[in-house]
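Troubleshooting entry. Yesterday's outputs looked truncated, so today I'm pasting the complete records for two proteins to confirm everything comes through intact. If either block looks cut off, that's the bug. Protein one:
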Amino acid sequence: MRSFRIYSIITLCYILLGLASSSCRRWSHNGDIDGYWQIQTIEYFDPASDHKTVTEVVDFNHDRDDEGNLLTREYIAVGLELLQCYYGDKMHPTPAANGLINYNKKQNILIVDFRGTSSEATRRKFGIFGDPATLKIRKVDSHKLVFESSGAIVTCNRF
């Protein structure tokens, strides 16, 4: 009787282990790029120029609007297969654009397909040009993300 109980408990443990290991859980393989990023600066340049001469810099830490208020913050969230662009208060952000991503870690390229969910003008406010947009990751670690689109270099901090 005692050995039957032990075998029953062991069998139950194997069944639970099997169920837990075969559950439908999605796992992200994007590494450090996953997370919530607050845009610090956007350096716009002329896409036609070979030298990428900066034509305008937007600094969200110092630049002010016409009334003297700091510019509205912009955020990017990356997770699993989705990139989302937000603006406004970080406690109540307003969604602006959503895109499906394909991240190639070896080439440091992030391709974002917005599928017509937002206008080109809206995406440009985040330094993202084109649909689909190709973003070259210049730097990514646990604190900072710097990427280059076809018309801007965007620097973000994790928050």
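Protein two, checking that the full record survives here as well:
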Amino acid sequence: MFAFRKLCALSVVAGGAMIATASTSMAQGAPSIGEPTNVTVTVDHYNGTVKVDWDAPTGGTVDPERYAISFALDDVGTDPAEIVMDHGVTTGNVGDAGALDTEYTLTADVIEDNGVVHGWFSVTVRSDNDTEGVYSNETDFVSVEIINMPDVVDNQAYERDDATGDLTFSWDASSDGFIDPAYYRIVWGNNPTGVDGGTAQITSTSYTVDYEEVGDGTWFFHIYACGPTGDCHIGEPMEIAVSEGTPQTTELPATGSSNGLVIYVLLLLTGGGLLALSARHRPRGHA
């Protein structure tokens, strides 16, 4: 819709009469606002958030006063034509601090749809100017996958049993991701990304890996935090030199040694049975 402004030009004719002549000015367009540009979407599986980022529009005759973000969560593989943006948030109201921010972070509780926080996540962004009552078109939607896995574990550590060579790992569960862990695994390889062995599912936050399962060598161990569908978040590698343990032995002092301990053994054999075993300390220098 266009508005036209009428201008009146005054002229003087013979006899001093004033005549007004109407003319029409050039057309003036209604207020318009441009779409946001360069929309990006970043999933953070460590903290369970999705960050939407964009640039302010460069077109239009009025500036945005705020932005509206629409989003949808669908199954991976959903036909784009079937995606419906049925959820939305805004950067604020006119004049609010942050209303003109060009990024927005969505948390897991906002994204959740019928108890689900994973799948194909799609986003569009729109420029709003409520004062003029004009709104841009939605941007083309950008889609990313939210994987059904938790954050990595916290405070991972291990202790070696010197007698057996076994390794006992411990860690803390993290609830910072989109979901809580369903189970864990410990996996090892001869390089930081290799997989040469691993445990079955672990439901506690500690586990002992026997030396015999691994063997001598330098190994890289990872603790996996896994979701219910088997998607796992891999923790930082722990480089460990694994070797066989040394069993502890106890030696008795020899008879006549400097500590003066003499062991007397009284064996009373009755029917081939061992009946008694006794020991006595004999102080040095005494009979």
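Both blocks look complete. Sanity check on protein two: The first strand starts at residue 2 and ends at 3.
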